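Table S2 (continued). Query chain:
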Amino acid sequence: MEDLKERLILPKPASAFNLRGSSNRPASSGWLGVDISGLKKRGQGLRSWIRVDANGNSQVIEVDKFAMMRRCDLPARDLRLLDPLFVYPSTILGREKAIVVNLEQIRCIITADEVLLLNSLDSCVLQYVVELQRRLQAAGVGEVWQSEGPELCRRRGSRNFDNMFANTSPDYLPFEFRALEVALETACTFLDSQAAELEIEAYPLLDELTSKISTLNLERVRRLKSRLVALTRRVQKVRDEIEQLMDDDGDMAEMYLTEKKRHTETSFYGDQSSMGIRSVDALLSASAPISPVSSPSGGRKLENNLSFARSRQDSVRSSESVVNRIEELEMMLEAYFVVIDSTLNKLTSMKEYIDDTEDFINIQLDNVRNQLIQFELLLTTATFLVAVCGVVAGIFGMNFPIPLFDDPDAFKWVIIITGVSGLIMFCLFLWFYKYRRLMPL
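Corresponding output:
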């Protein structure tokens, strides 16, 4: 991984040294300044790309935006999806000559012969390059082994050995699907690892919050929930993109670049061969004598019918092969759809656990609030009874003569009667609270 980082870091271009040296020289002619400004203008649109070919060889190239558009036959809006300055959701687009992939940190253009990846020192990008090289090199060795197997078996005359090598195949997918598979695997692995890290952090924090409700724990849970919502949105977008691609057979057929390239080359060479045959027929017809019996119209009709039947047969074969390839691509997408759906289910269960924890905390808070209300009700009742005793004391404290003041035991009886009355009133209040179910007594 470190060696790959060193190879991906671009050295300082020599044009900078040339410009610095040329700025100290005297301008002998007027074209020098024009050349420097032209270099600056051309250097503004250059970007560093990592190119990985079908053999697994990688190199760092600098390509202009318009050159990339001409090279891959892509519109400007597709290249804008790969711009790291803009934040776009995950997207997989099938075009005529390329597949535009924007999955998390993996932003690349896949063609039938190469993968063009934006140069970055991100760990996911380096992991994608290393894994793609490993698979392409392993697939190349397997293909050589498989191609040499039948020849060796013919030399040895062993039918079982021939069958063993004939049934061995490392990968039936073309180059663009292998690159797309590695991109899907890297993105799904990255999202699943983030979900696992969030899960490891979430459950102990939620358990701590249930045992101790504090402002610090509530703030940590709030941050955790915001991260969970953002990650769930990203995982949901990748899942929806894979599901939408699986539901559209036309998009999947459009992504089979190797088949389209082979069909284009076959039609090109077929047109050249037909042109050569027509020129030979024209020469032969010009040199041959004219027969009154045979007419050239019959031969032309036969040739047209044969060419029509051949083209129809080729189209049927190509459609059948495309349907088979669509099934292979659909099975590959279905496998990664299961993986990303499992990650989404993990995040959903985590969100449900957070919601359950919030409900439990709300129930606890409601219980504490109810207890406070009950205590406040009892305190208010006791205050009311004390106020009644104060009213009695205020009445007897008034300055008017009554015979009760002359009795020496009157104070004791007033206190006893007032206390017993207050206790009876308190018991009546408690019975009323229990009768109306205002307090669990």
